[in-house]
């Protein structure tokens, strides 16, 4: 059986993994959802200095503090950035890294690099105008839908997501990832692609081409960008298969 450390994406806390974690435990696995600094129940711990290094330290500290071994580290969305950083620091504690509707970062990369300059500038303006200069509130769903699939999120699930989301410390979007930015040699590498990402991979986007080839193993999950909310049991099935 596997030991999963489940890291949520932007604006989310460990709560987002509740149903998937429960399903993994029912299959005999250890499932440990993690809330990053400044988010979820740790919202009061965030501040202007909370950045990508803070979240990398959250992940590595969690694994070391609980003396976890043979860890399957799971990143959803934004969490790809700190998980990539942590994977390069965990040494032989890491058995596998799984990216859920996300992809590994390269050294020198930051979250704002993933969006057009105009969109990045709009976020900076939003943070300056309504986020005290360091917090990024979750955008309205109509804005999120322009870049991320909402498939599978009915009104009830959207209400939960909206009610429990917390502003993202913006330093986690602006700080660039420092090396090492690769899992330890021999660590298993898994990609779980949802609707939009499936399309990018199938279209043969050059910067993503390597993710469909060994040593990567790809699993497709036909749902939207938040599968732990839209298809939690199916996501657990995929993760269970990936470690079997």
From TrEMBL:
The keyword Glycosyltransferase does not apply. The keyword Hydrolase applies. Pfam families: Abhydrolase_6. Keywords: Hydrolase. One of its GO terms (molecular function) is hydrolase activity. Residues 4-238 form the AB hydrolase-1 domain. This is Alpha/beta hydrolase. It comes from Streptomyces lonegramiae.
């Amino acid at each position: 059986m596997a030991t999963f450390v489940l890291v949520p994406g932007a604006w989310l806390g460990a709560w987002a993994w509740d149903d998937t974690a429960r399903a993994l435990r029912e299959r005999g696995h250890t499932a440990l959802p993690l809330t990053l600094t400044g988010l979820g129940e740790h919202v009061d711990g965030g501040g202007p200095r909370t950045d990508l290094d803070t979240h990398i330290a959250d992940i590595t500290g969690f694994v070391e503090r609980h003396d976890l071994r043979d860890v399957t580290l799971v990143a959803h969305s934004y969490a790809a950035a700190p998980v990539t950083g942590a994977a390069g620091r965990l040494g032989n504690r890491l058995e596998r890294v799984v990216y859920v509707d996300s992809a590994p970062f390269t050294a020198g990369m930051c979250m704002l690099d993933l969006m057009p300059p105009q969109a990045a500038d709009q976020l900076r303006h939003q943070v300056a105008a309504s986020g005290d200069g360091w917090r990024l509130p979750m955008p309205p769903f109509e804005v999120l839908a322009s870049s991320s699939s909402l498939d599978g999120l009915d009104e009830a699930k959207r209400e939960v997501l909206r009610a429990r989301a917390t502003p993202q410390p913006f330093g986690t979007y602006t700080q660039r990832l420092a090396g090492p930015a690769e899992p330890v040699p021999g660590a298993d590498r898994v990609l779980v692609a949802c609707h939009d990402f499936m399309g990018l991979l199938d279209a043969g986007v050059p910067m993503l081409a390597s993710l469909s080839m060994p040593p990567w193993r790809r699993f497709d999950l036909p749902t939207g960008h938040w599968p732990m909310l839209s298809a939690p049991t199916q996501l657990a099935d995929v993760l269970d298969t990936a470690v079997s």
